[in-house]
Amino acid sequence: SARNFFGKATSLNKMFFPAWIGFAHSFACMDETDQAMAAYRTASRLFPGLPQPVIGMALEYARMNNLGLAQKLCSMAYQKNPHDPTILLEAGVIAYRNSRYEEALKLLKSAVDAFDEADEDREVALVNLGHCYRKIGMYEQSVDVLTLALALDAYQPGTYSALAYAHHLAGDPISAVDAYHKALSLRPEDPFAISMLELALEESEPLTLDRLVVAGGDSTTTGGGDMMGD
Q1: Residue 206 confidence (pLDDT)
Q2: What pLDDT does residue 207 have?
Q3: Which 3-state string (H, E, C) describes the chain?
Q4: Helix axes 52-63, 85-97, angle to 10 degrees
Q5: Closest by alpha carbon to 93, among 119, 120, 116, 61?
Q6: Among candidates 138, 179, 147, 185, which has minimal Cα distance to 161?
Q7: What are phi and psi of 133, to 5 degrees?
Q8: Do residues 197 and 220 make contact, with C-beta atoms less than 8 angstroms apart?
Q9: Burial class (CB in 10 A: 0-12, 13-18, 19+), 151
């Protein structure tokens, strides 16, 4: 397995940083937190100037729901390299989970700007930024960035659900219905989208009727003479 090769590489050269990070990640990917933390700590001790082991430990603490310590480690990683888009993204996500939305907004906006447009993590940063805008009541901005995220990856049901919810909160249930339908076409059993779609349909019905009445009135007024003649 990859873990065995990474472990052998660290034995052959304990100062080979990529091997230590790969070794730690191999445990983290399998939710083996204790072993992952031990490898990250060793890497952090051997390479004190590098932020990757620190952000790795932060993510493990976040996995254990120790968000306070995760936040402190993210701050340490950020101080080591404040321009790394991955650090900005992870620090923003943890700040969001700590309900520090203004801080999260700043970090996530910086992450979006720092990622190359072709980087798939830019889509992840946009989605999280959309959630953050929604949390602080900036629904139109949430719609805008979630739409950008879908332009990068149009097959994410969670993003469609988030977009629908932002439309819904912005007072546009008709657009919300459309986005909820798209979310359910990709993930039919999504309980959130199902329940919110029912609510959005109830709210959009009178608006749809109003639009039909207005459209009908405009049509009659514009072509009333011809229609009466027919």
Answers
A1: 62
A2: 55
A3: CHHHHHHHHHHHCCCCHHHHHHHHHHHHCCCCHHHHHHHHHHHHHHCCCCCHHHHHHHHHHHHCCCHHHHHHHHHHHHHHCCCCHHHHHHHHHHHHHCCCHHHHHHHHHHHHHHCCCCCHHHHHHHHHHHHHHHHCCCHHHHHHHHHHHHHHCCCCHHHHHHHHHHHHHCCCHHHHHHHHHHHHHHCCCCHHHHHHHHHHHHHHHHHHHHHHHHHHHHHHHHCHHHHHHC
A4: 20
A5: 61
A6: 179
A7: -60, -40
A8: no
A9: exposed
0.70 surpassed by pTM: yes
pLDDT confidence of residue 123: 97
Residue pointed to by tokens 């990070």: 21
Please identify which residue in the block is written with the tokens 């390479």. Answer: 47
Distance CA 71, CA 93 (A): 10
Residue 214 pLDDT > 50, yes or no? no
Q: Residue 121, Cα to own-chain centre: how many angstroms? A: 9
Interhelix angle 52-63/17-28, rounded to 10 degrees, is 10
Q: Are 143 and 160 in contact (CB under 8 A)?
A: no
Q: Which residues of 95-133 are buried (b: 16+ CB within 10 A; e: fewer)?
A: bbebebbebbbbbbbbbbebbeeeeeebbbbbbbbbbbb
